[in-house]
Amino acid sequence: MIERILSMKQFQTWAEVDLDAFHSNLDLYRDLSHKTVMIVVKANAYGHGDAYMSRCANTWGYDHFAVSSLEEAIHLRNNGVTGMILILGAIIPGLAHVAIQHDLSVTVPSMEFVTELYEDLHGLKCHIKVDTGMNRIGFHDADEIREAIKILESRGASVEGIFSHYATADEPEKPMMNTQFLKFRETVNSLDHSFRYIHMANSDGVFHNPDETFTNMIRPGIGLYGYADHPDLKPVLSLYSSLTLVKKVHAGETVGYGASYTASHDEWIGTMPIGYADGWDRKNASRYVSVGGEICPFAGRICMDQSMIRLPYEIPVHTPVELFGKDIPLTVCAKELDTIPHEILCRIAERIPRFYTSAKKTVHLSEERFHYDL
């Protein structure tokens, strides 16, 4: 697939999104949990492309999605995504009518939010957020939740769900996860309210969950894209660039901004069209890429739109370069950068085209601006 793209001379930097891996991960979560899967597609589906990934999920029978903001939710609706879309973050109360217009479900995070809503809320779908220890957003007090539900329903809103969020799901040895679940269960039971959706588990929470039957929905995010504590999860996205120039640099010559790299002997330097404007962090200057299986370190600083690497020998221009994928797992990249896969994926700029593949064939290319006659 990579060779075919390059032979088209269409793109020099791109991401490949494996739809079969995404579908497999989705089914794994559904089959292990036996619960409704709410697919978290916030932050452009963690850099994978929210609209297209969601439409694919629709065709596979999945129709519950979660995003961060009102704008993300409307973007999905405008791009043909059907089913429930829950906005996990707090929207501006005065824009509740926009959520109603687009058939969106909103998070109710506090009594202050409820009091700022206008009087007529007919058509508004709500999920109450319970703060069980994250101290981010959500209610602490069950009496306040009870009062909030009373007000919302009196104005015509439908309180269809209630949820919380684990702080340490990826650290199962810590007791906080169980403490949070017990608090959530106690709170929900005390409300004596029939919720259609009760959900708490995130990607790792599903695998280390103290809850068996209390909730009926899960909210996997990063795990759907391949990164959580289960051996059968498959990475979905790989990132590639290519060599646009290869030159010999002589001993003593420098490379890049600040002349921070000096050739210790005659070396082959390759230039790639990817830089920090593409989301490739400047900290990667201390790392490496893979060129045909050869590990090649960066030479000098990462530029805005370009980066240079030291080659073991002269390699032809247009040769593909893997930044992370089969040869260099994203988990290794994240560890070396002292971060998490989420951050690296979310930072991949929209100007990098995403090629969506199934059965190793390209089935879709992201964004209209990437379609042009050759």
Summed up, what is this model?
The chain has about 375 residues and is of the alpha/beta class. About 25% of the residues lie in helices and about 25% in strands.
Radius of gyration: 24 Å
The top-level CATH class of the largest domain is Alpha Beta
Q: What's the main sheet like?
A: 7 strands, parallel
- Envelope shape: elongated
Helix content: 25-40%
> Count of DSSP E strands?
21
The domain count comes to 2
What do these coordinates show?
With 374 residues, the protein is α/β, with parallel strands linked by helices. The protein has two domains: 148 residues, Lyase, Ornithine Decarboxylase, Chain A, domain 1; 207 residues, Alanine racemase (TIM Barrel), CATH 3.20.20.10. The protein is 26% helix and 23% strand. The protein has eleven helices and 21 strands. A seven-stranded parallel beta sheet has the order 3-4-5-6-7-8-9. A five-stranded mixed beta sheet has the order 19-11-1-20-21. Strand 13 and strand 14 form a beta hairpin.
